[in-house]
Design a protein that fits this description.
about 120 residues; 5 helices; single chain; Ribosomal Protein L4, Chain: A; about 45% helix; about 15% strand
């Protein structure tokens, strides 16, 4: 009678609103200068030192960084997994929360096309 009553607090968000939020987040990061486009890269061996060198070359070590690839890069993912505040993501899985959470976003050249396709798709 007076016990807890389970409730469903979820709500449906339209696809158009989700795409608009992603576009807005990306445009705000572009105006802040937080998005950088880099060449596609992969490591020959799994070495965290190599990923630290990449971060040091951009002078962003210590910030929350997001690397976006078009295809899975196993050696890069395994090299970056021990580095705090650094995430690796595929372009097709890019979402608004991760865009807003990252201070710096590094898009590979091949990841641009899938992102543009998703944002320009008619719903």
């Amino acid at each position: 009678m007076f016990g807890p009553k389970p409730r469903d607090y979820s709500f449906k968000l339209n696809k158009k609103v989700k795409v608009l939020a992603r576009k807005s987040a990306l445009s705000s990061k572009i105006t802040d200068g937080a998005i950088r486009i880099v060449e596609d890269f992969n490591f020959e061996a799994i070495k965290t030192k190599q990923m630290v060198k990449v971060l040091d070359s951009f002078k962003v070590n210590g910030n929350r960084n997001l690397f976006v690839f078009a295809e899975p890069q196993k050696n890069v993912v395994l090299s970056a997994r021990n580095i705090q505040r650094t995430e690796i993501m595929l372009a097709r899985n890019l979402n608004t929360y991760d865009i807003l959470k990252a201070k710096n976003i590094f898009l590979t050249e091949s990841a641009l096309q899938p992102i543009v396709e998703v944002l320009n798709r008619e719903i």
